[in-house]
# Entry
Amino acid sequence: MPAVYGIDLIAKRDKKIKMDRSIVKCWNVHYQTLEEVEEETRRKKKKEAEEARKNAEQLAEEDEEDEEKSSSKQGAAKKGKTDAAYNRKTGAYSGHYGTIPVDDEEKKQQIHAILNEKPEPFESAMSAIQAQG
# Structure
């Protein structure tokens, strides 16, 4: 009876090197059955349909937002605000901040509290600037 030898690490390494250098690699070959191909096409069609539905929903939401923005722009234009002062990044007419007097008493108190929160550092900074000048 011939001797049977086990595969050692060197033989495994040599086999791996041979497979890596070969043109057709055994792990890249997969024979698909007809059922597998049909199932894959069904999955692709279903995924595309879901993506199309999501895109349609997003477009509808964007259209609604655009309509709301245009109506708010028209309302702001009626109040005397121009498109030149409109800031698209913040979605507000930030060019008019501080130009209109505050009428609400609660807002006036908030502004006063914020501005007078730390008067000492402000006064010391102002005196340092005046001393340099």
Remarks:
- The chain is about 60% helix and 0% strand.
- The two ends are 107 Å apart (CA to CA).
- The mean pLDDT is 79.
